[in-house]
# Entry
Amino acid sequence: MEADIKKLLKEALEDQKEIFGDLLFTGSIAANQLSGSSDIKVTEKLGMEIGSELFKEDFQEAKSIEELHALIKDCQKCPLGKTRNKFVNGVGNPNAHAMLIGEAPGADEDAQGEPFVGRAGKLLNDILKAIDLKREDVYIANILKCRPPGNRDPQPLEMETCIPYLHKQIELINPKIILCLGRVAANGLLNKKLSLGDLRNNVYEFNKIKVLVTYHPAALLRNPGWKRGCWEDVKKFKKLYDELLTN
# Structure
């Protein structure tokens, strides 16, 4: 019942915002109208006086990865929802100490509903094996949960719309370290605009979680000469991973 009331009130306020803009007329409007006063109180931003909880989306209340998936799997917030085959949430250990983050599902992922499958997924498995980790040891997700047509790069609005889901995944997993796979994923998570070369040379933090960056497996398939650089990156990742686990 409470959820229904919140939904109705939210819809009414959004309708009001569409008409009047960002200023929200408060409950004092009725009294002012009755008294003939033109001194109508307004808030600067929609929802300021009624509390941010009213506008908190249901998925933010999820207590587990499974519950989160159930709440977001039918998302239609951007046009990719209409063109996808399957919503690609994430896969792996929900209690993992490490997360791997890519940019978006490809054709294989869109068909199977799982991130990093096909040739790129097999190569990722091999990379993990080389540093004594398995797919089941980590949690794997993408910035976008739906495949962009033609495997193009995610567009800014798509990333802005979808990345709150990833942020919630990170909150629920609470890893000690994150490895971003590719420039787009790293810049999206870290809110930067850097080259892959610059990104690979540093250790970053996201909400106090260590973040490293390496090549996307699909890029390694196209350019095998980059595998040496990737190997150096993942060795650094594993060294920091082991140090964080022992501290």
